[in-house]
Design a protein that fits this description.
Number of strands: 15
Largest sheet: 5 strands, antiparallel
Low-confidence stretches: none
Mean pLDDT: 95
Number of helices: 6
Helix content: 25-40%
CATH class of the largest domain: Alpha Beta
Structural class: alpha+beta
CATH topology of the largest domain: Uridine Diphospho-n-acetylenolpyruvylglucosamine Reductase, domain 3
Number of domains: 2
Oligomer: single chain
């Protein structure tokens, strides 16, 4: 796991060894407009390094919680940008312990997906390329996106991030709000009353509370709008 930002572990836990790839694996090398970074670096830290070098193209990721490896695996994106826009390629390790290098095309990056998820690879190191830009302009964009996130997302409460993927032609948060589910609770799990795309923990929510609320939201949205909501949050552990 990386920072666990999009991860929900069931209440019975996970039977196995968990390896956390985070600050213990976060070196960064900068060469002109190219950056090579290890998978454990937080996007927030990496974005500051990129900004200080006056490189543009990573502003979208400045406020996304989580590590670079997780961002590549799910092709994380926000505000019109995605990881695939800046990725050259990355080194991964497969289940046999073999290290493989995959370029951008071989990663098969799509909306919140990549071949990394399909094959069960683990990201080790990432190559990215940016453009030279103006520091003040880049910082202004970063500051603006940070302000928009803090004002529109329930960052003051625990959550696993955006709960659902965006359905084609729709926005998950708007569908949930239009279905009258804003603020709905099961136990201490609640559809955020600030942004309906988030399920937050307002007290001592169990994983079961969250999962049951996810299922309720999916059913109501399906019944009301004939739209299937797919979870962006990855759910693991013993059932």
């Amino acid at each position: 796991m990386g920072n666990g930002s999009n991860l929900l572990v069931r209440d019975k836990g996970f039977r196995g060894v968990v390896i956390k790839i985070a600050e213990n694996f976060s070196d960064v090398r900068v060469e002109n407009t190219k950056i090579k970074a290890q998978a454990g670096i937080l996007l927030s830290r990496l974005s500051k390094i990129i900004m200080k070098k006056s490189l543009e193209g990573f502003e979208f990721a400045s406020g996304i919680p989580g590590t670079l490896g997780g961002a590549v695996a799910m092709n994380a994106g926000a505000y019109g940008g995605e990881m695939k826009d800046v990725l050259v390629g990355c080194s991964v390790i497969n289940e046999k312990g073999e290290v493989i290098y995959l370029n951008n095309d071989e990663l098969e990056l799509g909306y919140r997906r990549s071949i990394i998820q399909d094959k069960g690879y683990v990201v080790l190191e990432v190559d990215m390329k940016f453009k030279k830009g103006d520091y003040d302009k880049i910082k202004s964009i970063n500051d603006d996106l940070t302000q928009r996130r803090t004002s529109k997302q329930p960052l003051h409460l625990p959550s696993a991030g955006s709960t659902f993927k965006r359905p084609v032609g729709y926005y998950a948060g708007k569908l949930i709000q239009d279905a009258g589910l804003k603020g709905v609770r099961i136990g201490d799990a609640q559809v955020s009353d600030l942004h309906s795309g988030f399920i937050v923990n307002v007290g001592n929510a169990t994983a079961e509370d969250v999962i049951n609320l996810i299922r309720l939201v999916q059913k109501v949205v399906r019944d009301r709008f004939d739209v299937e909501l797919e979870t962006e949050v990855k759910i693991i552990g013993e059932e």
